[in-house]
From TrEMBL:
Start and end residues of each stretch annotated as Disordered: 182-268
Domain of life, per lineage: Bacteria
Originating organism: Streptomyces lydicamycinicus
Name recorded for this polypeptide: Secreted protein
């Protein structure tokens, strides 16, 4: 009895621990989802604000907003390409490390541009704009180099995989059509002039009666020889077409879905 109580208590503790673990995991996952949603909403609001400021406030403030918007767009696009392709390509890990170092410089530049937006001295901002623009171009150029290199690498792998798949499909298609090669090899009409007497070479000698018109076997009463049978086995000739005879139902091939042919006895 005590053993049963201990087992039940142990199972209860295990169920409680499992419930707590599942609850904690669910809370963390929900928190991560909320954080992603909040970060995405914040980025959307900031981007919309920068676009509105770029259009509504021409001059130094509008140029600062344009620089921040260009920096954020380039860095975000590169981040999506690198982190999106890293699960399928482990070689992008080094590129991701370089991008993280580049992101530090990008965040520093974005913070500086944000501080200059609140600077009342527009002349000082105008003096520092060329340097800020040059830094922005260097950062965005590096980000674009990483992004396009990753895209070209992914496209190269896709092209190689498609070429290999096409070759395999061609081989399989040929294997599925194996009967066409067998039929071509066994077709008696593939070389219709191979068995005729005219196919002999120029050095072959003619028989004494060859080349002279003779009466057919039906007129003289003689039976056709083996050479005539071999010559006529390739098919009808225009000079002497063979007679058409009806098929004997007893010699026709039968198939499982056909009934056996009826044979009727005839009495004389």
């Amino acid at each position: 009895m005590e053993a049963a109580v201990a087992i039940v208590g142990l199972l209860f503790v295990l169920f409680v621990l499992a419930g707590v673990f599942v609850t904690v995991k669910a809370v963390k996952a929900a928190k991560r989802g909320v954080d992603r949603t909040v970060a995405h909403a914040r980025r959307t609001v900031e981007d919309t604000t920068l676009r509105a400021r770029q259009l509504a406030q021409p001059g130094v403030v509008g140029e600062l907003a344009q620089l921040r918007l260009s920096l954020r767009t380039s860095m975000r696009a590169t981040q999506e390409v690198l982190y999106g392709g890293s699960p399928d390509d482990a070689s992008l890990s080094e590129a991701i490390g370089l991008f993280e170092r580049l992101s530090a410089h990008g965040h520093e530049l974005d913070d500086e541009l944000k501080r200059l937006e609140r600077e009342p001295d527009r002349a000082t901002i105008g003096v520092r704009l060329p340097d800020l623009r040059e830094r922005l171009e260097r950062i965005t150029h590096s980000a674009e180099s990483l992004r396009w290199a990753a895209r070209d690498r992914a496209r190269k792998f896709a092209d190689d995989d498609l070429a290999s798949l096409s070759d395999q499909i061609d081989v399989e298609s040929g294997a599925l059509r194996h009967w066409t090669r067998v039929e071509d090899a066994m077709d008696p009409l593939r070389d219709p002039v191979a068995g005729r007497p005219e196919s002999a070479g120029p050095g072959a000698t003619k028989s004494p009666g060859q080349g002279q018109p003779t009466d057919g076997p039906a007129r003289t009463g003689a039976t056709p020889g083996p050479s005539d049978a071999a010559a006529r086995s390739w098919g009808p000739t225009p000079e002497d077409p063979p007679a058409i005879t009806a098929r004997d139902p007893r010699t026709q091939p039968s198939y499982p879905w056909q009934k056996a042919p009826r044979t009727e006895d005839t009495t004389t």
